[in-house]
Structures are given as C-alpha cells and as structure tokens.
Amino acid sequence: MAVPIWKDYFVSLGSVASQYFRLRVNNTTIYQGRAYRAASSGTLYVRINDICADYMSKKPAPVPYSAQSMQFPVSFKVQKSSNGSTWTDVETVAFNDDWSYDPNFDPSVHGMSFPITGRIDLRQMVWQTRYATGSVSAVFHYEGGGTQTVSVSPGSPGSNSAFADALRHAGYTQADVYIPSYETYGGKTLEYFTMGGVTYVVTKACPKYMLYYKNPFGGYDSLLLEGRVTETRTGERDQFVADYDNTKQTREGWTFSNELTRTFLCNTGLLTDEEAERMPYLLDSPDVYFVDLDAPSVEIPATIVTDSYQVQKHVNGAGMVNFQFEVAVAQKRYRR
Q1: Domain 3-96 coded CATH 2.40.50.870
Q2: Are strands 173-178 and 125-130 parallel, antiparallel or unpaired?
Q3: 83-134 pLDDT, tens per residue?
Q4: Rounded to an integer, what distance in angstroms lies between the CA atom of residue 261 and that of residue 244?
Q5: 77, 141, 258, 283: which sits with the fewest CB atoms below 10 Å from its CB?
Q6: How far does CA 234 lie from the centroid of its chain?
Q7: What's the pTM value of the predicted model, to 2 decimals?
C-alpha cells in the first residue's frame, strides 16, 4: 500500500558517516544530495517524504502543469553512492497525495471526494476524483419520479485554464458530469444524482458564486456559496507630479498605473454540524478556484486569505452555522 505523503518516511543508508543519495522517478533523477549521520546514531537515515512532496506538488511550476502530468501513487526509487558516480538501489517507495493526517484513511476504500454540502447548481460542472481507474455509474433522479443511469468515463480536462491543468496534474481519475446535459429527462427536472457513493443535490437558490478546491485527500470538490458574497477592489496607484499651466485644464497629478486586487468576503450559508466539520477541507486548501456561475466555464485561481477560523458547530445538532471567510483572486489587474 502506498504511503501518505504527510507521514514521515525514513530510509536507511547504512552505518557509514556520510553517503550520497538520490531519488528517481521513471529513471529520471529528481533529487540528489549528501547525507551525514547524526553523532548520536549508529545508522544514517534520510527522511524523504518532504522531498517527494515538493516534486509531487510542483509549486511553483517551472512549466505548465499540463506538461507535468503524473499518475498517483508516485513511485520513488532511492539509490545511494559512496562517490557520487556509482549507484546502488536501496528501496522503492510509493506515495499518495494524501494530506489528511488520518492514519486510517485509504483512498481505495474510502474514496477521494468529500464535498462539504454536496449541493450543486444546474449550470456547473461536477468533478469527482477517483482512486480507481475506468468508468463509474451516475444515477440521476428527477422530480416526480424517473431515473436514468449513465456510465461516466474519466474526464478529459481542457488545456486553457489553470484549473484544467491542475486536474490533469492531480494524477488520479477525474470523473466529470456537465449538469446542463442532464437537467431534464422525460420532461422532469433533475433533483439529485449519485456517483461513486456521493450524493449531489440540486439547489434552486441560484447562487452566483462557487469554489472548486483540492481537499486533503488529493481530490477536487466544489462548494456553492449560498450566503452573501461581497467583492472589494483595492488599488495601489503609481503616481507622479508634473509641471502644469494653470491657464489650461492640464494635470499636475498623474496616475502612471493602478494595480488592482480583488477580494471576496464569502458566506457559506447555513451548514449542519457534519458540513461544518468538512469546512477545513476548503479553508486549509492550497489550491482554490473562484467561479462566477454566470460564466461557469471560467475558473479563476484564488487563495484563501483568512488565516484563522473557528470550526463552529452545535454539538446537539439543533442549530446550523454560517462560515465567513475571505478569498483573493490570484491574478492582479493593471490599468495604465
């Protein structure tokens, strides 16, 4: 079984005082260095999971993600050398892109998609990350009765967005369902559908915004922002003062350029205790995309600005809570 990348993994290089070592993926060296034995230890160990995590995340990417696609789990061959030229195999270890810190989690058993609410909009695309390869059945249920079952083949992300590149780079099977294609069936409107053990319920609230995000298990999920969302634009102006003639309507102060940052103060809407417990999947995520559902095919790279938050919930299950957090668009705009 593959090792979760969050878990420290030590490789023994023998009882020598120092040793060259390297990590290789598909016969390509991705790291090489020299390790020294601790004075208090009789054996030289190197911890490799942090090195492997850097390779697996590829952030910042020197080339587009689309050129760096990989298949998880990723196998790393560890080799050692006394002189840096002649290498001996030590062991091969496979890592999953799992940051859950849950020693009992197994993606092949538990799956990889855990949406916070499971609520979706009729305008969106639903992506579900799967550990297993091949197709998966989706069962669509319609208001007033009626179902249809569709075999969903692994998705083929486009090539013109950061989100598509991230999905391709994610290294697992991505099942995609374009909801507008299944909105009606036999004259009835889609109510919900199930796929891979997850239920997705259509909301009639028509929210304007949603987020795609990478969860700690290595999968991608989405969250509709069903509460109020307020946009703030902050400008940083580069200005200068010039000579002027006060007999004419000319300028003394000029704006050379204006650097604009867009942030959104988001409210989730009311969540159950179970949904609230999953909010850290989004708020701790390093990979987030902001979507205006009036243009659902445009996924804008974003970052979670909120540094701290309370995992609110009513233990007795009698109440519901709202999470408020700030998201910044990860692309500045310029006016000159």
Answers
A1: no
A2: antiparallel
A3: 999 999 999 999 999 999 999 999 999 999 999 999 999 999 999 998 888 8
A4: 31
A5: 258
A6: 26
A7: 0.87
